[in-house]
Amino acid sequence: MNGCHNDWWWGEDLTVFAGVQDFKNIADGGLISSFGFQEGVNWGLPLLPDLGINGQVGYEATQSEFENIDGSRQQSFLTAGVFHRPWCDQGWDDGIVFDWLHDDFFGNSFDICQLRGQLGWQWNRCNEIGFWFAANVSSDLGFQTLDQYNFYYRRQFCSGGDVRFWGGFTGGNRSSTSGGMFGADFEAPLAKRWALDGGFNYFIPSAGAGNGGFSEESWNVGFSLVWYLGGTAQCYSPYRPLFNVANNGSLITISH
């Protein structure tokens, strides 16, 4: 994979994406899934390059449940924070972002927020292990985000693509929403400016189906076509955003 460069320009690590997604969470009763579309933008940039500190900001919109007579469900996600990637794709990476969700459905709307962080070790250009978490910081109308703690392994390929698998657990919210987590995501470059990415995350509540576990079960799956303004889909850049924009997998809505 290409890397180790200093000639950065503002559009090099700007991506625009659009695709499809399906998810299920407790906000609409936890009994049905919400299929629809997603589109957004994600941008990374150097803040203090001599210290290896970079910033990122991204936005995603979703539209789903078009069949509902009360109107479709509209969501807006905003992610912003700081991160560090190693030069030459080997060493420590870490970062923390603030995620915000505005969810508007069936004549109701709420706003919830969380912090999401990651710490990883790339011991060579192909392999990484690490830990990522999400922690609720605000609630609204009885909804909040699910705290989750996940350990991951990422495999990076010479073509610029990668795949990551994780597993973990939840905690810190309510005992009835405790359980296990597992998921994966990937990105596969198609050309210099184009890539396909996707992933899923699944929350398995500890409560059985007869004790409300089915309604608390949450999951998200999505796929997007990604356009790289800087033509770096097949290259490594230390300024590429470390975090994807939040979605219904990295930010899971629960009731409290």
Main attributes of the structure:
14 strands, mainly beta, Porin, 256 residues, 59% strand, 12-stranded antiparallel beta barrel
Structure commentary:
The longest helix is centred in the C-terminal third of the chain and has 4 residues, at 213-216. The chain is an all-beta fold and 256 residues long. β5 (91-105) and β6 (108-122) form a beta hairpin. The mean pLDDT is 90. It has one domain (14-255): monomeric porin ompg (Porin), CATH 2.40.160. It contains one helix and 14 strands, in the order ββββββββββββαββ. It starts with 13 loop residues before the first strand and ends with a strand. Strands 1-2-3-4-5-6-7-9-10-11-12-13 form a twelve-stranded antiparallel β-barrel. Strands 8-14 form a two-stranded antiparallel sheet.
Question: Short summary of the structure?
Answer:
The chain contains one helix and 14 strands. With 256 residues, the chain is mainly beta. It has a twelve-stranded antiparallel barrel.
